[in-house]
UniProtKB/TrEMBL annotation:
Residues of the ABC transmembrane type-1 domain: 36-317
Keywords (A to Z) from UniProt: ATP-binding, Membrane, Nucleotide-binding, Transmembrane, Transmembrane helix
GO cellular component: plasma membrane
Superkingdom of origin organism: Bacteria
Full protein name: ATP-binding cassette domain-containing protein
Length: 587
């Protein structure tokens, strides 16, 4: 399945946006009450802004021209109260919507992170972590900015505009119609340019994601970069990504600001129309000075929000470009579905591959029509040349991927009928490169293991001793409290493998897979691990992938994995013959 977010098909992107918008609305659906109050505050604010010019016009025509200063003071007091009320409603609306934006940001980040947790390994193979981080951090923030700052201003400005437009038409229809002509031109221009603005912003967000991916890759691999003196190479790559980001930022900045001067120009044209046409109407006795002053205020009330709408509209386009990228993740359906639970078959082998085919992408099949059975309590070894398909076979056993054709059965039933929790309880997988979390050895040993999580250090040490793992724990200076920093980088690779080994064994799985799990461990400790493996419960099945053939001496059965085929190799000597034959053929 294609999980590459940057290469999703157009149709998929379209449906994901639609589905995403619905989900976006769901995210703030429970805020109805607050949205209602914020909306009420903005509408009161807009109404006040609309009434103020009317009162000023009335003051000029009724009191100023008659030199009635008591009336002027009276209206000034009313205006002051209205200004205060406008201040209060504006404050209310900002505070309420700020909260809505932050809560939405919180929920959205959680939703994306939860979705990322559900996605299969294939997704992470196809997308760069840096780009995903940028989606979770940067793109969600664009939406937050829109919700907390722009949405209510958007609604407020539109309501002021509509009100001002109505006043303009009511006060004088001909003058009103003439004043509104530039607005129609602006509307048409906005509609024409919006897709271009959104596209420019999408390109900029994408290049920000790429830049973040570049930073993540070089930070993750800094040791290799320093060892191979490749700093210049990564500097150049970052420079290229940064340059692309700069280029797209200029493009989006230009697109985002294109409306501001254009709107300003049309607003000035509207003022000119009001002045020229209004003065003409005064000269023929159809208009008063007070009305013209009110009218100019209404024209301002109409065009000022329109000017602000230019900026808000681009905020909306930026937010929607970000939302497209977020909803691409939210709408992804993991391709590892769980089938309805089935009853395990008694007497069935622990695990079976039935005519399994698999490829990481559709164009290249890695495993071809593989069938084998793993019986309870036996030890199996997978040997074969580098890149032959051993890790891939083990990954399918642990259901990190599903076959493209065929079936994997656990206890006689399709492995897809097991919940992730039940499956990981049955199958323990020690990966080639174990990953540890920042914390202590204890945190890492108990990772994903609820059984012992409430035990004190002493009790856990006893459990470890009982499981025969005491000599492994003794290798760590401060025992369970040994610190693991920087995602495991503070300890050696061999020590990481030992922690991963203890972690897997303490989970007491029915099937334990060790993928090159002892490759970085000294021979004496490796022997110790062999003994521990030998003392596992009789029913535990072990699958060992190893290049060092001495580690698989005691295997009950050896499979030779090469060029997408898994064949029974017979004895260790037969496996060595097969390996030598394969080496001769490939050289
Ligand atoms: N994530 C992946 N995406 C695409 N192709 C992959 C991926 N992982 C492995 N492959 C390809 O699948 C093939 C089998 O790889 P696999 O890791 O299973 O081999 P292996 O026998 O375990 O090798 P090794 O002994 O080096 O660990 C290789 O050709 C490899 O290039």
């Amino acid at each position: 399945m294609n999980y590459n977010l940057n290469k999703l098909g157009a149709a998929q992107q379209k449906t994901s946006t639609l589905a995403g918008v619905k989900k976006l609305l769901q995210l703030i659906a429970h805020e109805k009450r607050i949205l209602f109050f914020a909306l009420a505050a903005i509408l009161v604010n807009s109404t006040l802004s609309l009434l103020i010019p009317l009162i000023i016009g009335h003051t000029i025509d009724s009191y100023v021209q008659q030199k009635n200063f008591t009336g002027v003071l009276h209206n000034a007091a009313i205006l002051l109260c209205m200004f205060l009320a406008a201040l209060f409603t504006s404050y209310m609306q900002t505070t309420l919507m700020g909260g809505v934006g932050q809560r939405m940001l919180f929920t959205l980040r959680n939703s994306i992170f939860n979705k990322l947790q559900q996605l299969p390994v294939g997704f992470f193979n196809q997308n760069k972590a840096g780009d995903l981080i940028s989606r979770v951090n940067n793109d969600t923030d664009k939406l937050n900015q829109f919700f907390s700052q722009s949405l209510m201003q958007f609604i407020g400005n539109i309501s002021i505009m509509i009100g001002a437009g109505i006043f303009l038409l009511i006060i004088n229809t001909r003058l009103g119609a003439a004043t509104l002509v530039p607005a129609v031109l602006i509307l048409l221009l906005t509609l024409a340019l919006s897709p271009w603005i959104k596209r420019k912003n999408a390109l900029n967000l994408k290049s920000t994601g790429n830049m973040s991916a570049e930073i993540q890759e070089s930070l993750n691999n800094f040791k290799v970069i320093i060892a191979f003196n490749r700093r210049d190479y990564f500097r150049k790559r970052f420079d290229a990504a940064n340059r692309e980001n700069y280029r797209t930022a200029i493009g989006s900045g230009l697109a985002n600001n294109v409306f501001v001067p254009v709107y300003g120009f049309f607003a000035s044209v509207a003022q000119l129309i009001v002045l020229a046409f209004g003065i003409y109407l005064i000269t023929i006795g159809e208009f008063s000075i007070g009305l013209l002053i009110s009218y100019l205020s209404y024209a301002n009330n109409f065009y000022n929000p329109l000017r602000q709408l230019a900026a808000l509209w681009t905020n909306f386009q930026v937010a929607m470009a970000g939302w497209d990228r977020i909803s691409q993740i939210l709408s992804l359906e993991p391709d590892l579905p769980q089938l309805p639970a089935a009853t395990p078959e008694t007497g069935a082998p622990l695990l079976e591959f039935r005519n399994v085919h698999f490829g990481y992408d559709e164009n290249r099949e890695i495993l071809h029509n593989i069938s084998f059975k793993l019986e309870r309590g036996k030890t199996y070894a997978l040997v074969g040349p580098t890149g032959g398909g051993k890790t891939t076979t083990a990954s399918l056993i642990a259901r990190l991927y599903d076959p493209s054709k065929g079936q994997v059965l656990l206890n006689g039933t399709d492995i897809r009928t097991y919940s992730p929790a039940a499956r990981s309880h049955e199958i323990g997988f020690i990966l080639q490169e174990p990953f540890l979390f920042t914390g202590t050895v204890k945190d890492n040993i108990l990772y994903g293991n609820n059984r012992y999580e409430d035990l004190s250090n002493k009790e856990l040490e006893q459990v470890i001793l009982d499981a025969g793992l005491g000599s492994l724990l003794a290798i760590f200076e401060s025992g369970l409290d040994t610190k693991v920093a920087s995602g495991g980088d503070s300890i050696s690779l061999g020590q990481k493998q030992l922690i991963a080994f203890m972690r897997a064994v303490l989970r007491d799985p029915s099937l334990l897979i060790l993928d090159e799990a002892t490759a970085n461990i000294d021979t004496i400790t490796e022997k110790l691990l062999g003994e521990i493996l030998g003392k596992l419960p009789e029913t535990t099945t072990r699958v060992i992938i190893a290049h060092r053939l001495n580690t698989i001496e005691n295997a009950d059965e050896i499979f030779f994995v090469n060029s997408g085929e898994v064949i029974r190799a017979g004895s260790l000597n037969d496996a060595i013959d097969l390996l030598l034959k394969q080496k001769r053929q490939s050289s």
